[in-house]
Amino acid sequence: MATKFDMSDLIRNDHFIDGKWVASASGKRFDVTNPATGEVITAVADGNEADARAATDAAARAFPAWRDALPKERAAVLHRWHALMLENADALGRLISLEQGKPFAEGRGEVLYGASYVAWFADEATRIYGDLIPQQQRGKRMSAVREPVGIVAAITPWNFPLAMIARKIAPALAAGCTVVGKPAEDTPLTALALVHLAHEAGVPPGVLNLIAASRENAVPAVAEWLHDSRVRKITFTGSTPVGKYLARESADTLKKLSLELGGNAPFIVFDDADLAAAVSGLLVSKFRNGGQTCVCPNRVYVQSSVYEKFGDMLAKRVAALKVAPATDPSAEIGPMINARAIDKIARHVDDAVSKGARVLAGGKRLTALGSNYYAPTVLADATSTMQLSCEETFGPVVPLFRFDDEAQAIRAANDTPFGLASYFYSQDIRRIDRVVRRLEAGIVGINEGALASEAAPFGGVKESGYGREGSKYGLDDYLSIKYLCQGGLE
């Protein structure tokens, strides 16, 4: 029977290293705050190079035994972890809402989403196959086997504090790797709670280690992993500039990297689309977590003949969205993560309006609720001269761009250094085939706004990174191929 905890039981404020909860080497701590109120939740151990090194030492000691464990033994641990996540979905969902701000329904949904990766990779642990290569020379047998890469460093963002780290840890443990990790400084509590449940599930000491670090100490702590040759892989979700830094700084030790980086997703509505379905799909894809996701549509292109109608339909739906703290059961959008996020959203909207955009809905801060709230916004007459056309807003703002023909829409959609997600709505099957082939993105939604699934490969192209998370491909970056050649058989 899985153990059920209250949310307060899950809050941990120390590092987890070698199976123990430990304070930082410096003794320093930093505050974690509730974005809805600005109140301090708790003070968490502030990790530095010494803590990162201690985590790596523990992972190195634990690696041989975990690597040699039977796949079904690793799978059993992951299945127990999955059961604990489900048993504690409500408590974890409330914790996500508390430190990240998303409504409880979304927080609980994130728990189930993250847990689905743990269950998926628990099963995949027993399906790591090799190949017997057809004989090329007499007396020789050739084969290829896949082995765990070694210690994995997982670095995760604040917008999905459970799902992002679960879908990195789960394949690593399934493959036989050991893990060192650092969650975002804004949201470390959910990750620490997840590690607590992993420990309860029987993950051996040293196999999974997690440190927290403030903005000031995050760079030196991570640099310790980048320069340590024992760490063989970095998996990171976050901004493109940070991803490029990780690639540069880890180059001397030639680590494997999985980088799921920034996006600037287009959403195209053709004149033959089901407009009601397109509006609903856009609401799902854009306003999840208040627009604070890397696959949120940032540029919405609508064909001229349906432009005004679509804008009116969308504005009515967006204006009706309920903005409130996560403690309000009717909340559909919560606060943004911090003041920097609000300032960027306001800057983008103000810039667009100053250059001719029309506000169809929202367009203002909601200061009566608190300092971190912004109204869901629809802007008409957006153009490529506006900041929001080339910078990811990461907030509840929908800019509507007008286009005349298919070729123009494809050019505009691809006119970005990023290539994570793209969406389009059309009922023309020939057009669907053409557009799918021409969009430069790792993920494409066709008449669909909800793309996430543990069974699908998630990742981008161009400056949105490389590597895939989830699906049967999700183990590849945690494994290396060893070629075996046995001679003297005749």
Automatic annotation (TrEMBL):
The keyword Oxidoreductase applies. PROSITE patterns: ALDEHYDE_DEHYDR_CYS, ALDEHYDE_DEHYDR_GLU. This is NAD-dependent succinate-semialdehyde dehydrogenase. Keywords: Oxidoreductase. GO terms for molecular function: succinate-semialdehyde dehydrogenase (NAD+) activity. CDD domains: ALDH_F5_SSADH_GabD. Gene3D superfamilies: Aldehyde Dehydrogenase, Chain A, domain 1, Aldehyde Dehydrogenase, Chain A, domain 2. SUPFAM superfamilies: ALDH-like. GO terms for biological process: gamma-aminobutyric acid catabolic process. Coiled coil: none annotated. Belongs to the aldehyde dehydrogenase family.
